[in-house]
Amino acid sequence: MKRHALFLFALPALLAAQNFDTIQVKAQPLRGGVYMLTGSGGNIGLSVGTDAAFVIDDQYAPLSAKILAAIKAITPLPVRFVVNTHWHFDHTGGNENMGNAGAILVAHENVRKRLSADQFIEFLRRTEKAAPPAALPAVTFTDSITFHINGDDLVAFHVPPAHTDGDVIVHFAKANVIHMGDVFVRYGYPFVDLSTGGNVSGIVSAADRVLAVCNPETKVIPGHGAVADCATLKAYRDMIATIRDRVSAAMRAGKSLDAIKAAKPTADFDARVGGTFVNADQFVEFTYRSLGGK
User: Fold this and answer.
1) Total-model pTM
2) Residues in the chain, pLDDT under 70
């Protein structure tokens, strides 16, 4: 997917204009029975083998039939589990359909809490209504949970607030694949959902945790964008940390948010990062507010 298309969901008007009939769900094989599926919304992780299909995230409800058809083209076995990496609607929109099809929905406890009540995403100026009971995770956890399935050990672990307060990363231990949800994205500067607990520093610490188990052969599935490697993740982590540290230093020097934006602490990254969903000034503000600025 091209960068400018990755966040068609970002504004309600654009979301309403989407024609899901034209969306194609495509599967990219990675390693060890693990695939990445793309369509519209967050990247889907898929593990197949002799046990069942195991899915990470499920995009939008109108795409559920296409997603299930794409999985069926790979394995005749049913979807047994769906893990949500966080609560956002482009990653959980298919929950109800997947649950009705027989999958057990799993997520961090904060995801269930967020989905159980109306949520306001300040950056998008968008209110998300509470999900129906059938769309709520039936299994929740606080720290980590391991699935022994398809000959692999799939470890889903919670990280400190980063993109949201319910972020989960899934490590396919034997396949050497890691799905990071929107803690790691490739559409430009990351969206930090401050209104539902996100924090820039959490992105750095989450990347550090993943990098500790990375090696040159590891394949990293981002929440949006192309499959990456650990070197790409490391560059992303270092960029976020550098910008955060520059903003922090400016705050300690007593500079206002407007003055910090004017100083362009992202300038040496802007051309390389690109992207249109979150611009440099908006990311600086995410960082400033993450660090306690008002």
Assistant:
1) 0.93
2) 1-17
